[in-house]
Amino acid sequence: MRDLDHRRLGRELGLFDTDPLMGAGLPYWLPDGAVVRHTLEEYVREAERAAGYRHVYSPVLGKRELYELSGHWDHYRDDMYPPMDVGGEQMLLRPSLCPHHALIFRSRTRSHRDLPFRMAELGGMYRSERSGVLGGLTRVRAIQLNDAHIFCTPDQAVEEAAGALGLISRAYADLGIRAARHRLSLPGGGGKYVADPALWRRATALLREVLEASGVPYEAVEGEAAFYGPKIDVQITDPAGRESTLSTVQIDFHQPERFGLRYTGPDGARHRPAMVHRSVIGSVERAVAHLLEEHGGAFPPWLAPLQLVVLPVGEEQEEYAHAVVREAVALGLRAEVSGRAEGSLGSRIRRSRLVPYQAVMGAREAEDGMLAVRLRDGRRPGVLPVAEFLRRVEGRVRARGTALWEPA
Question: What does 280-328 look like in DSSP terms, one character per residue?
Answer without folding.
Answer: SS-BHHHHHHHHHHHHTT---TTT-S--EEEEESSGGGHHHHHHHHHHH
